[in-house]
Amino acid sequence: MKGAPLAECLLPLLGTARGADAVAVAAVRGGDRVVLCGGACAADTRFETGSLTKTFTALLLAELVARREVRYHDPVARYLPRALPGGPPVTLLHLATHTSGLPRQPPGLLTGSARHSWFGNPYAAYSPADLMAALPRTRLHHRPGTRVRYSNFGVGLLGHALARAAGGSYPELLAERVLRPLGLADTDCDPGRPQAPGHWHGRPRPPWLIPALPAAGALRSSGRDMLTLLTALLAPERAGPASLRAALTDVQRPRLSLPRSENRLCLVWNLRPRQGRPLLHHSGGTRGFTAFAGFLPDSGTALAAFANAAPTPLAPFVQAAYGTLCALDGRPPGRAGLSAASDVPGDGVREAAGGG
Fold it and tell me: What share of the chain in percent tops pLDDT 90?
């Protein structure tokens, strides 16, 4: 596949999204850049990205660090003083590496209307006020920094802390510091802008709403915009102002090594070594969409894929996207074992060489 035209390599991926009638695949390999669309969509069609939002939140964190507005080891309590109960401090870095000890979801989410709408729009009725009211009664599952436990709650809280540190709201701050400087015109957290219709088991879904945790899963984007972002990640020195160039580099730096494997965690991004070279990836899903993005900095290869159907068991679309990325690099994918719900394992951790 490495020697074939890029569009030809991507074409089979369009048929792997079960239940989707709109699929967009964007890729870059060396000097070639392609956005390929299948069904009722175009290069600028917006898709819900789910947890792929977290990679943008990590970039925002790194941008604020580059400006010296926050530090990675700042305690969350510095920006949300009445947030968490006493005990070992939870830092911004803990939130960005899923090592905070916070549960996957905030207290109170799975009660009342949220429980009844779990298969439709479970976060819609859970407000920022509900989140702040729940923080004081939150209990950590483990001491911060000792174990990886994937947490929508944690990255969502990171968005609130960054917004409080810099002033304004998370969507406004993300647009000002990341989206507009990169020229991402199709990307934001607005559920009211036109987007592809989502599907779950063949049924249309309403737009995804997550008002309390936008930094964890509210973003919409397009194949065109993801191609721009991936190109910037592959060549940070060519992108935006100095603080954003520094952030694009910093999000790729390994922070933690997972035991019994060679896998590492960067800022939100998962890193898997492939014959001594890093492959960074993340995926996401809502009740109506599936998303994947990955890149190999050393070979100048990257791929993003969107489908307007909810993730299915074993995540075949995500697996196929990961495999296609590996094939573009000219190497077999091996056993991916990825999931659109969470592709970060729960396990003990140690600091990666050069981490921080």
Answer: 77
Q: How many residues can be counted in the chain?
A: 356
Closest CA to 213 of 196, 189, 187: 189
E strand intervals along the chain: 22-29, 32-39, 47-48, 147-148, 198-200, 203-205, 220-221, 256-257, 264-265, 270-274, 277-285, 290-296, 301-307, 347-348, 350-351
**24 touches 222 (CB < 8 A):** yes
Predicted model pTM: 0.93
The Cα–Cα gap between 302 and 81 comes to 40
Per the CB < 8 A criterion, the answer to whether 309 and 50 are in contact is no
- 266-292: burial string, b at 16+ Cβ within 10 Å, e else: bbbbbbbebeeebbbbbbbbbbbbbbb
Which CATH code fits 6-333+343-351? Answer: 3.40.710.10
CB atoms closer than 10 angstroms to residue 115: 10
Nearest partner of 58 among 229, 184, 193, 225, judged by Cα: 229
Q: CB neighbours of 155 closer than 8 A, spacing ≥ 6? A: 54, 57, 95, 96, 98, 213, 215, 216, 268
Q: How far is C-alpha 54 from the chain's CA centre? A: 3
Rounded Cα–Cα distance for residues 36 and 13 (Å): 10
Per-domain boundaries in the chain? 6-333+343-351
DSSP secondary structure of 66-118? HTTSS-TT-BGGGTSTTSS-SSSPPBHHHHHTT-S---SS-TTTTSHHHHHTT
Residues 6+ apart with CB under 8 A from 58: 96, 251, 266, 267, 268, 269
SS3 content of the chain, % helix, strand, coil (to 5): 35, 20, 50
Nearest residue to 56 (alpha-carbon basis) of 159, 151, 149, 128 = 159
- Which CA distances in Å does 86 have to 37, 135, 149? 50, 11, 20
Structure tokens at 101: 């000890």
For 130-173, what is each residue's pLDDT tens digit? 999 888 889 999 999 999 999 999 999 999 999 999 999 999 99
